[in-house]
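User: Watch each token:
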Amino acid sequence: MIESLFSNPNYEASKLLLDATAARHEALASNIANVETPGYKRVDLSKNFSDAFSAQLKAGDLSSVPAPSIQQDPTATTERQDGNNVQIDKELMDMSSNSLQYDTLTEFVSGSLKQLQMAITGRSSM
């Protein structure tokens, strides 16, 4: 019974997206930390995860979506003479957007778990 609640497609998708936003946060933090490192190349969430997630979501089966991973961003262009291609303004905006996505997903998952608790106990927790 409990297993079926945690294998719900919405819950599974939320877990995967939470993992992805956490991984992306690590990538963005690394980019910000290395903004002054000569030769540093920007990293971001692997496009393979995004493509697989979208395809599997349409198919209705998220069991074969790979874990989110970080890789060098092939779309980033070299801006500076030292070879570093991190743009601090873009990284800070992406970090803010990613944080908002994470907060939204945690609210959704928390709400689902609170509903489950209410169904089990018959009262809400405050």
Remarks:
- Residues 2-121 form one domain.
- The chain has one domain: 2-121.
